[in-house]
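Hi R.,

Here's the chain you asked about this morning:
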Amino acid sequence: MSAPPPNEAEKNIEIWKVKKLIKRLEAARGNGTSMISLIIPPKDQISRAAKMLAEEYGTASNIKSRVNRLSVLSAITSTQQRLKLYNKVPPNGLVVYCGEIITSEGKERKINIDFEPFKPINTSLYLCDNKFHTEALSELLEADQKFGFIVMDGNGTLFGTLSGNTREIIQRLSVDLPKKHGRGGQSALRFSRLREEKRHNYVRKIAELAVQNYITNDKVNVAGLVLAGSADFKNDLNQSDLFDGRLQAKVIKVVDVSYGGENGFNQAIELAGETLSNVKFVQEKKLIGQYFQEISQDSGRVCYGIEDTLKALELGAAEILIVHENLEITRWVMKNSAGVEVIAHTTKAQESNNRELFQDKETGLDMEVIDSGSFLEWLAEAYKDFGANLEFVSDRSGEGNQFVKGFGGIGAILRYKVNFEQLADYSDDDEFYDESEDERPEAPASSLLTARPVDNKGGSRDGTKASVKDNKNRPGPSSVKLLRVWTEDQDIPNNQPSKADFDEKICNSQDLVVLDCWASWCGPCRAIGPHIEAFSTTYPQAKFHKVDIDEVPEVAKELAFRTIPTIAFFNNGEMVDITTGPTPRGIEGCIKDLIEP
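And the predicted structure, written out as tokens:
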């Protein structure tokens, strides 16, 4: 089976990746002609390209310069090895870049890149040079979006599309409509009525054909729609109730043309040129305008800055991530003296001026760097794990420039209000607060929708929260009086217990038990529920249970659960781990650690 087509957001991310790749490849330089650029179009043969490379290898063996000869032969060999990974050319073609480049430190480094473009690339290319040739990829980006055209007048209608510099006529339709004046034989009123009826039927027919041509599998297949014509038909169609609402929302321009048919199509393309070039700007302005509107309404459903945005991601609260396409932030994964992983995000200025970010707070020594890379590249790979949509924006529009300069180029529109000040008060340090109220920090009275404090009667209250990093001092089921909270024998995450034998289900169980402490009024609890249900199928080694703290508040009290959602993990009747306000990834990580210690 072929892979499902990517949605618009996934396609935009693929485009961003290609843009970043082009930028890196264009900056690369090598010695001699040892940098190979190979592009194989769709429906071409891998064997043909392999044969050509074999011939090139023989030719390159005659290069007089020993250093250049070895470099070129090495690059050709690497390219041949890359081609062996493919049995046939992918549907969108194949792009290969191989060779040795000179780094900024003056050292030689091998580059081997092969990938299938995000859309068909109808270019055949093989070049050995001192640089990589990316012109075909750049043209692919320019020809990204496809626009629909409806050229409609009293003589007929033309349906067409425009993608980059490729124009295609989809369908033509001729029509014979009565003019404003007849030859007599009927009253003027009757003639007018018949004329209006035929015009109405004509508009209805065009509306139906527009759906057939521009909607595929219930989705609009063009980025925008241009209506053109020499009379009022284009306006009648645009304002008609017969015109599909999905297409009406895609209309970006209505233009007057002097001709119909193909000549009118060409003129419409010319007149709509400026609008077509600004379509992405319009989409960008609309998205950032939505972000600014949430701020102006003080809804609390937005965040900005890398720290708050990452917190929103971890909570599953981020619905739309908005990120500047050229955000220069590095993501560091380090290990401190205790062997604990520490993740830091830095700008270039912070890397040179703030070395404390790389030092262990306990020892003052530099931490071991496990991995480092572009934060944007990590985000482009990981955003789906957090249930968010990722949108890249530029700084070329007024709104985009304001977002980059005023908000740091990163932010999110949230699913629900989150109190980041309270989250900051309880940031995940390596500290553990025991059950003493004197040592527990006071929580502010402001509401926090995620990780809501609970009281002994169910519901929420202004309370306190213990760190979830260390639970060794927390009383386990063996040291507290456990209550009867189950009525069903089913081990599923969505059962609704009330009064049954908790000891039998937990304390006397020899299995790994995952306990979800939740409440129906808690948004994050409802969001995390489907993920836990999925885990119950994925990990049959564990038993999953769910406790509503409104129904059985004593459980939260006895087990010292102070916030929800709280997920507790029991093994052989003892609590072995606990996480509060978790993400699906965090829950799955705990389950994996306990199943495969």
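Residues 1-5, 428-499 have pLDDT under 50 and may be disordered.

Let me know if you need anything else.
M.
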